[in-house]
Fold this protein.
Amino acid sequence: MIELKDISKSYNYNKSNETVALHSVNLKIDKGEMVAVVGPSGAGKSTLLHVIGALCTIQSGSYTFDGEDVSAMSENKRSRFRNEKIGIVMQNFALVEEYTVADNVAIPLYFRKGVKNRRQLVADAMQKTGIYDLKNKYAYQLSGGEKQRCAISRCLCQNPQVILADEPTGQLDSANAANIMDIFERLNNEGMTVIVVTHDENVANRCKRIVHIKDGQVLSDVVR
Ligand SMILES: Nc1ncnc2c1ncn2[C@@H]1O[C@H](COP(=O)(O)OP(=O)(O)O)[C@@H](O)[C@H]1O
Ligand SMILES: [Mg+2]
């Protein structure tokens, strides 16, 4: 499904002031996998997720998704690819605080034409994370765990092929973190591909495969 070949990515791309965040990374992730990406701060984990999410360009190497060359896509094509295939969950939830839960979950649908049954899609997405009963609450009224469930529902609403989560439990206590991992595990059991960047060993240990990144390189890649 996801194939990264010799990916290199630098920031501030000029010779005098350059940070190399990824060095010739090779990584293959199949449909239906549940992968943790771990490693120290600054290792390149977020950058790797941004590359997979087509949120940034790369300097060299190739990235294909279901055989499609993402690295060769124009800006427009890349953003369409992202909207259609990729669900992104961030540590800080990135909700619109003054919107209700239902309105937050519906956001990806604003960018889609010709979607029927919008209300049903939103309701299904809320049911999958157990927040349906909170649908009329405002985001600012939610606890951290509820906010993250709302953010996951928002990404489910776009019916992605893969969910990319960057430290999704970083702001949560251990009970809420376990609850979020229960949701990811359930989605994965239904066939969703899930990639989680995490510092938390308990979170990593819930994943079937652990990729360890250091200094922009894959240090180890273990299937448990
Ligand atoms: N937007 C940016 N501009 C310049 N350097 C960046 C940027 N984002 C990340 N970096 C650098 O790239 C390296 C990898 O960062 P990152 O992928 O965020 O690591 P991690 O998520 O593992 O902490 C770090 O050295 C970081 O300082
Ligand atoms: Mg990071």
